[in-house]
Amino acid sequence: MTNSKLAAAALAVSLLASSVASAQDAMVNGEVKKVDETAKKITLKHGPIKNLGMDDDGMTMVFKVKDPAMLKQVKVGDKVQFTAERGDDGIAITKIQKGK
Q1: Which of 68, 57, 56, 73 lies closest to 92, judged by CA?
Q2: For residue range 56-86, what is the model confidence (pLDDT) as tens digits?
Q3: The Cα angle at residue 19 between residues 40 and 79, in degrees rounded to 5
Q4: d(CA 25, CA 84)
Q5: pLDDT score recorded for residue 26
Q6: Looking at domain 28-98, what is its CATH homologous superfamily?
Q7: Which residues on neighbouring strands pair with residue 81, listed in sequence order?
Q8: What is this structure's pTM?
Q9: Which sequence spans correspond to the domains of the chain?
């Protein structure tokens, strides 16, 4: 393998590792307070959401969900980890999983 191909491969591995770390950093810890399947919304008590500029100590908020099927995975009282993104129609949960 030539030096340029080796350097390109090393760069690709480095970028992949940093994107995985960024995705993990974007996960926010929270607790489910309410699930409203009809409105396609979830109420979460959560910590800072840094990717949205919410660096405070956390709060309780109502979020839309990108995929309503996510609401079937959780129930009130569950500890969760989630990602949220700002879109044209506001902030929405894009991923949610039960916490560890």
Answers
A1: 68
A2: 888 999 999 999 999 999 999 999 999 999 9
A3: 40
A4: 12
A5: 80
A6: Copper binding periplasmic protein CusF (2.40.50.320)
A7: 29, 97
A8: 0.73
A9: 28-98
